[in-house]
Amino acid sequence: MAARKVLISGASIAGPTLAYWLAKYGFDVTVVERAPSLRLGGQNIDVNGPARKVVRKMGIENAIREANTTEVGLQIIGQDGEVSGAFPKDGSVSGTRELEILRGDLVNILYNCSKESVDYRFGDFITALEQRPDDVQVTFESGKTETYQLVIAADGVRSRTRKLMFGDEPEFKSLGLYVSYMTIPRQENDNDWWRWYTAVDRRVLMLRPDNKGTIRASVAFLEDDKETYEKRTTQEQKDVLKTKLAGAGWEADRISKALDASDDLYLDKVGQIKAPRWSNGRVAMAGDAAYCPTPISGKGTTLAIVGSYILAGELARHERHEDAFAAYEKRLRPYVEQVQKLPPGTPRFVYPETKFGVSVLNTVAEIVASKPVQKVIGLFSSDDDEQEEEGIDLPDYR
């Protein structure tokens, strides 16, 4: 491809992955990140299916494995604090995958493997884009103005760059759910299981181990779409969470008290990005900015890595950027639509309102976790994570 100078907005997962492959194919790549440094916070994520093949091609699979969170599986906690059902990591059904890693650790690995061949600029962001026949003129918040042949938005579900490129065309489809994440001190009675507790009034509390000696806590709750908690100050968000935690039981009081000292609280509305197109002339999108599937799908990291790999490969394969963008969308969109197709009733059916509803949910978990049922499920499943239905063919762009 003749166009070689590319600007990527966002240094999380999609951005550095895309930057790595573009640089490998000979492009002159710059990544601009609004934050003053890498954003290393966040919860447990996993690299599975086709994304695992991509990180293996990048030579970082072992680094991801070595940064494992230490999580041994999923426990469903009952209303009295008992374990209703346990799903070990090596079982037929488990929420914990082989390549389980903290989001911040994965961001750091992707940055380190690309920083020698990519120009990273922190503490700045795009404020204006002007497309011209042969390039895009980019204005930054710092006052600088530069030109690039292509500009890619990879700066997350709340991407401001996306709005500069497409206006209000992409839609944020809310699921009526809020999710919060924070790091809290580890206690003696904590273990290395992902513990999931469902409370009445459509609330879920989760505690997950990490490899830092702390615990990653999460509080999720269903809420009217009219609320805009994500736009409130950090202190206001803490107050909202304390209200939601009141009377929830189990470790609710512990999490509520830990909020006061929390310096990494994240609270946002859960939703999917539905965009009718991912490119517009010389600008395009990748990762959550283009096709966020929500954390519920468990495939956000996979889409970010796989989408970036395909976008870079098609740009390297085609002479014209228009053809590359069209090929990228043609190859990836069916997989995105497959991943974004959530089960009917999601997420409401796992957020019961009454004590009876919670009891039913925990009973179902107990039955599924039982040895007879696990044995039957094991007959129809594979022990190899890579043998799961991938849903997409990954070309070898070499």
Q: What CATH architecture of the domain at 5-40 and 62-67 and 104-172 and 271-343 do you see?
A: 3-Layer(bba) Sandwich
* Basic shape: globular
Q: Helix/strand/pairing class, anyone?
A: alpha/beta
CATH class of the domain at 5-40 and 62-67 and 104-172 and 271-343: Alpha Beta
User: Ranges with pLDDT <50 over ≥5 residues?
Assistant: 383-389
CATH superfamily of the domain at 5-40 and 62-67 and 104-172 and 271-343: FAD/NAD(P)-binding domain
Count every beta strand, where a strand is a DSSP E run of 2 or more residues: 18
Structure description:
It contains 12 helices and 18 strands. It is an alpha/beta fold. It has a domain at 5-40 and 62-67 and 104-172 and 271-343: FAD/NAD(P)-binding domain (3-Layer(bba) Sandwich), CATH 3.50.50.60. Strands 5-4-13-14-15-12-16 form a 7-stranded mixed beta sheet, sandwiched between helices. Helix 6 (234-245) runs antiparallel to helix 7 (252-258) and helix 9 runs antiparallel to helix 10. It is globular, with a radius of gyration of 22 Å. The protein starts with a strand and ends in a 19-residue tail after the last helix.
